[in-house]
Specification:
Trna Endonuclease, Chain: A, domain 1, Rossmann fold, alpha/beta
């Protein structure tokens, strides 16, 4: 019997009794299906057959009617034990006859090799003895109260004999027995096992829907930005700093104010530019300085020195001179700096001071920073002290609203930082994989990314992040057996899977993040990279670490367990 128990939703005592009699009365050559729905019915949007019996002679559909059965003025009336009465124009023979016809059509179209086997019907009225005859009634096809005195198999033999005789008399054929193979095909067609799992794309979409909400503290910070001219907002990865920076830029623009929305990363600046409208300048600080130096004709004043010295010392100096030459000192009404922990150096603060109307002391500015993200080691104490000397309002974001709980836990473990408060969004298991060499890494990453693409994700839903530029990466030759190229060009079209260094992806996020070439785990630089890289993932995260790092991973896991045990 499929299913092997009567559902709690079945209220008919007659149907429950027939379930038990059929289960006990049929031998192992038969399979019985209880309550089979018929969606493809000629005259009804939906029909149901109480029992479908599948055995060597053929397929028998059985309609069960309990309680009192009557017919008045051409209408059938059915009254159950609780005196609930229903009326139908269609009697039990018509009901099961039309349903069996629909089932016949379905099986002929969907079961290979069905041949001339018959698909028949019968009626069971176990509460009453059937004494009625008529042109629409065949007593031989009725299992009634009197039939219960004989084995149920006797009734089945009677039904089979009737339908075999009818087939022989009307069409001159003797239906073939159904072998075990055909029986299995019929059962699989009508009630086969299946396992429909949500696609990866659907699972990601559901996670994103759950994460897409402003937290109470984000609304509080928005109110604070409205009320204060100078503000410092601190928050860990995924707490919504970039979202608030964009919202604040849009609010200032709507008020007709000139706005500079700046960051340190070209990739992040591209995203900020696409997300805002009308800012005087949106981009990365290096690009702004280069533009001012170029427009003021001061490129010749830049010495041939180390790139770090060039950008941290000489470009800021020439930018300030250029602002004077161009008469653009104080051209910005509102300065907004995202991921500002990477730009807190005195020379950069000098540039901000020159850009901003009223300077840092009296102008309107908002600095959004993550004190944990300090991978370039540039958030110097003197610069922080200089900024705080202007007595800004200070707000802290504590709730991670980007990552699922699983991603937040893994980020905390690998980076050796405290586990943040996370929105209660359950996600997918983290893929932590270990590779032996570059060839093995490329093979494993290719297999993982191809699985994501096969699950319905598009290339642009995925971000592959590593410590090296693509040309120096183990993935420089692309992915194996993939129709999509991997590219570190932010402007590449949707047919390319994005690759980025971890440092260049700060402030950004992706549905699925794949962190590759994790060569070490315990150094400060490694843990900082892992903090940034893993926290970029919204829904799916995979980390590929070198095989030799397993012991270090165990040590990080031990530390994580200790933090959980000791609490904040």
């Amino acid at each position: 019997m499929i299913p092997d128990q009567v559902s709690d939703h079945v209220t008919s005592s007659a149907e429950r009794r027939m379930f038990d009699r059929i289960r006990k009365g049929l031998n192992d050559n038969w399979t019985a299906l209880h309550s089979l729905g018929i969606a493809h019915h000629a005259t009804k949007p939906w029909a149901e057959i109480d029992f479908v019996l599948i055995g060597p002679p053929g397929v028998i559909c059985l309609e069960v009617k309990g309680g009192r059965i009557s017919r008045e003025s051409g209408e059938w009336a059915f009254t159950d034990g609780a005196e609930n009465r229903s009326r139908k124009r269609e009697g039990p023979f018509e009901q099961v006859g039309s349903a069996s016809s629909a089932l016949h059509n379905w099986l002929r179209s969907n079961v290979h090799g069905l041949g001339s086997h018959f698909i028949a019907y019968a009626v069971a009225t176990p509460d009453s003895t059937w004494r009625v005859t008529g042109p629409d009634i065949e007593p031989k096809l009725v299992y009634d109260a009197a039939s219960a005195e004989s084995p149920f198999g006797d009734f089945i033999d009677r039904v089979v004999e009737y339908w075999r005789g009818l087939a022989s008399d009307r069409i001159g054929l003797s239906p073939e027995p159904i072998n075990q193979i055909i029986q299995t095909r019929i059962v699989d067609s009508l009630r086969g096992d299946f396992d429909l799992r949500p696609s990866m794309r659907a699972r990601v979409r559901n996670i994103n829907d759950d994460l897409l909400s402003l937290t109470t503290e984000q609304y509080r910070v928005l109110d604070g930005l409205e009320e204060n001219s100078r503000v410092v907002v601190r928050g860990g990865a995924g707490t919504g700093k970039t979202l608030l920076a964009i919202e604040e830029a849009d609010r200032a623009i709507k008020k007709g104010r000139s706005v500079a929305l700046l960051c340190s990363s070209r990739r992040l600046s591209t995203y900020l530019e696409e997300a805002t409208n009308g800012s005087t300048f949106v981009g990365h600080l290096h690009g702004l300085m280069a533009d001012i130096v170029r427009r003021s004709g001061r490129n010749s004043q830049l010495p041939d020195v180390d790139a770090n010295d060039l950008w941290t010392l000489f470009y800021p100096e020439q930018t300030l001179e250029g602002l004077v030459d161009l008469e653009e000192l104080g051209i910005i009404d509102v300065l907004i700096v995202d991921e500002s922990q990477d730009l807190l150096q005195d020379t950069y603060l000098d540039v901000f001071d020159g850009l901003l109307d009223g300077g840092l002391a009296h102008g309107a500015w908002r600095f959004f920073l993550d004190p944990v993200q300090n991978i370039f080691d540039v958030m110097h104490a003197p610069a922080i002290q200089r900024l705080m000397a202007h007595e800004p309002a200070q707000f802290t974001l504590t709730v991670n609203c980007r990552n699922t709980q699983q991603i937040a836990v893994h980020t905390s473990l690998l980076s050796d930082v405290e586990l943040p408060t996370v929105l209660q969004v359950e996600g997918e298991k983290i893929d932590q994989e270990w590779y032996s060499d570059d060839r093995d890494l490329r093979r494993r990453v290719s297999r993982h990314v191809n699985r994501l693409l096969g699950g319905g994700l598009s290339p642009r839903d995925i971000a592959v992040l590593g410590p090296y530029r693509l040309e120096n990466s183990a993935l420089s030759d692309g992915l194996i057996d993939s129709e999509y190229a991997i590219s570190d060009n932010p402007d590449a079209d949707w047919r390319h899977i994005p690759y980025s260094t971890i440092s260049s992806f700060k402030g950004l996020e992706a549905d699925a993040v794949v962190v590759v070439e994790v060569d070490e785990l315990l150094s400060g630089q490694a843990r900082s990279d892992l903090y940034v890289g893993t926290s970029r993932a919204r829904a799916l995260l995979a980390v590929f670490a070198q095989e030799g790092g397993r012991d270090d991973y165990d040590e990080l896991a031990r530390r994580f367990g200790t933090r959980l045990k000791n609490g904040p």
